[in-house]
Amino acid sequence: MLTAIVLIDTEPDRIPEVAHEVTDLKGVSEVYSVTGKADLVAMVRVREHDDLATVIADGISKVPGVLRTETLIAFRTYSSVDLEQAFSLGLD
User: With a threshold of 0.90, does the pTM exceed it?
Assistant: First the structure.
């Protein structure tokens, strides 16, 4: 399982709409409205590197109102919760 954190800059009047549209994309597990450098943060979890391009470049970046994205790819997960098990349910 690959995890990417995607920082999303949007047109200010489209933040809620962009958040809902991004949430509906396959591979996006959640979207947060945040303060700071970005308007939204999307958590993307996929099986293959090629899937990242599908979700981010072909999906998130094409949502009307998205101005730019910055993607951070996670190397390791440090958590007391077994995220791999939680996100692998029903994916086979």
Answer: no
Concatenate the DSSP letters of all residues of 27-88 into one string: TEEEEEE-SSS-SEEEEEEESSHHHHIIIIITTGGGSTTEEEEEEEE-S----SS-HHHHHH
DSSP state of 7: E
Domains of the chain (ranges; CATH) run 2-78 (3.30.70.920)
Picking from 17, 55, 46, 45, the residue whose alpha carbon sits closest to that of residue 33 is 17
- Identify the DSSP state of 25: S
- Kindly report the backbone phi and psi dihedral angles of residue 34, in degrees, each rounded to the nearest multiple of 5, phi listed first: -135, 165
- The per-residue pLDDT for range 7-61, each reduced to its tens digit, is 999 999 999 999 999 999 999 999 999 999 999 999 999 999 999 999 999 999 9
